[in-house]
Amino acid sequence: MKNTSPPASGHASTKVLFISHDAQPHGAQILLLHLVRWIAANTRVVPHVLLKQDGPLRKDFEAVARTMVWRPDDVAGFLRKCRGEKYDVIYSNTITNGAVLEALAPLDCPVISHIHELGYWITYRSGALNNAQVVQHTDYYITASHAVTDCLHETLGLPLQKIFPIHEFAPTRLEAFDAAPARRRVREELKIPAGAPVIGGSGTTDWRKSPDLFVQLARAVQKRMAPKEAHFIWVGGDASGAEFGMLWHDVRRLGLEPVMHFVGHRENPRDYFAAFDVFALTSREDPYPLVVLEAAALGIPIIGFEKSGGIGEFVENDAGFVVPYLDIDAMAARATELLADDTLRRTLGTRAREKAAQRHDVSVAAPRIVNVIEWVRLNHRIARLANGEKIAA
Description:
- By secondary structure, the protein is α/β, with parallel strands linked by helices.
- The chain has 2 domains: about 180 residues, Rossmann fold (3-Layer(aba) Sandwich), CATH 3.40.50.2000; about 180 residues, Rossmann fold (3-Layer(aba) Sandwich).
- Helix content is about 45%, strand content about 15%.
- The chain contains 16 helices and 13 strands.
- The strands form 2 sheets. A 7-stranded parallel sheet has the order 3-2-1-4-5-6-7.
């Protein structure tokens, strides 16, 4: 895969407009918050944030950067403000911001689009018009994984030399976090016996994250472990409503109510992850899931499906297991193997923690992204000078 890391720049006052498609507490939005927070605290880059839609994370963005909410009914007014700010780079987070990028095109500002999506979402959810707008108005791309890079090249025909793969990141150096009391508290809350093994999952409760397959995994594991019962905790998504009711319908029919725990969105998801012995990513499509990094940071081994995205790029052959796509029996076999072998579980979990800290902490990835930003700014400046424009120093 052709690509080289751009050189760092010493430019001291780069001003960047970061665009988030909304302010919901989900993976891509949280990743952007981590990035903006790190940039504000550790660099002389000036971050501003534009939220395409409002949400609960707005207050967190406001704590670290000037934050605005997009008003499609006042594009002209927003363009006037942007011209006054004189942004050097626009940084669009996710593939879903095509309409906003088109509206901001008169600024003649270089655009980086950070893509976290794979083929299903790009083809069926973001829409052909949106995708065309993103491609038309983006100069360079950052991708969440090599799987996303390949997808963009194959589905949208993007040239590899315009793509910089930078794996997803999160705060993964958790030396100050004491997992033991959190583990005890969560198990007490959910009435899980002290010695019962726990398999965890996390994400929204939609088709791509596949909580339905998590239910199937629970049935397959219980068959293998009887009479000893494992428990299953899913953090995130809905824990009520019609769609959740479809999940719980299967749980009830399978007799899994005593061991299945859908806890919904939590403000302290790390505490619940601390209760896991194994993390199972049942996603049908997941570019490079942050929840895997968060579990790995706690020393939890990972299981996932091949061909589902970038999970194999993290797990490799030393942080868990990758099984054939949608092969629930194979996943259940690996899960029970890990639960039965404390040494293997600790060995793979330790390596997962090491890789999460060494490769995926925000302090490792964010400087690489800043280098891309500075490189794009410099290239744009050089191109303008080559065209005979006079640019203020």
